[in-house]
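User: My advisor asked me to double-check a structure prediction for Fe2OG dioxygenase domain-containing protein before group meeting. I don't want to rely on an old file, so could you generate it fresh from this sequence?
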Amino acid sequence: MSFELDPSFIVDMENRPNVNVAAIGREEVPVIDLSGDIERIVEEVGNACKECGFLQVINHGVPLHLLEAMKETSKEFFDQPMDEKKKAKRDEVNPVGYHDGEHTKNVRDWKEVYDFLIDDSTLIPASPDPDCQELRTITNPWPKNPSQFRVVCQEYAGEMEKLAFKLMEIICLSLGLPGGRLKGYFEEQTSFLRINHYPPCLFSDLTLGCGRHKDFDFLTVLAQDDVGGLEVKRNGKWVHVKPDPTALIINVGDICQVWSNERYKSVEHRAVVNGEKERYSFALFLVPSHHVMVKPLEELVSEEDPPKYLPYNWGKFYATRNRSDYKKQNVDNIQIHDFRVPN
Ligand SMILES: O=C(O)CCC(=O)C(=O)O
Ligand SMILES: [Fe+2]
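Assistant: Sure, here is a fresh prediction for Fe2OG dioxygenase domain-containing protein from the sequence you gave:
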């Protein structure tokens, strides 16, 4: 066994996990009860999106036994030999499936993932080239083992999707829009679910399971197991989100930031690894149809508050991102900042 760390995993000094990060619970990332009076819920969700970009929801309607089943089947999948996992692997053509070489900000993450699309076959642009009109269909490379993997994943994803759309409605209401304002953009959604597996790491002070980043979606619904590791940037500090088995974590993504013309902003977060324990988390990324041009919503711009972003094509953005996830590159990945109108 080797006790050396591949240098591609080493995070630069200023971004290393700080062992003294404050463990915080309910006070810092607001917890919102999704049962009860809708006006209260809308107000609380709106405030949390505005002030924190992150929130936790309880009484969310996703049966807890499904979460347990997801953990079990995921563990069975990732515990298999690499050869077996690679049979369901992502490649240059197919951006979903098993993958263990992800880089965030050009540093390799200490994790392996399995990504699957919510809609089993999904249309995306064939190339990131803006002049190419060609589309292609991507499908999930489901592994044969464990045998119940696909069924469990799809049942779980179905529940998560329902919750994500419900939250989208609440967010619309909180912005003074009709609840269904955005639904049409998701008719051919490219949403996907990511199973994150973070093995224990002897060098947990030098590496990150998932480097600091903002999510590029509209919103994310994240479930984490009881190990803990998620950290959210608040007022310039990294704060630890204490695992709560009854809560799901929601965060605003970049597309929500653009649509809302920055009324709500996506917030940086990361995952630290544990020296002894492996950790699982499950993230649903809610993203629109490939052809949607993302830009500040007309209702939310005015002469005093002009659009802060130029329109961008979601599918092309996604295709560009996927291309650059593969290897360490010396350039920054495409980001919404590239479309920001200067102040
Ligand atoms: O595992 C976590 O807690 C965070 C994962 C995450 O941020 C992501 O997959 O985008
Ligand atoms: Fe994330």
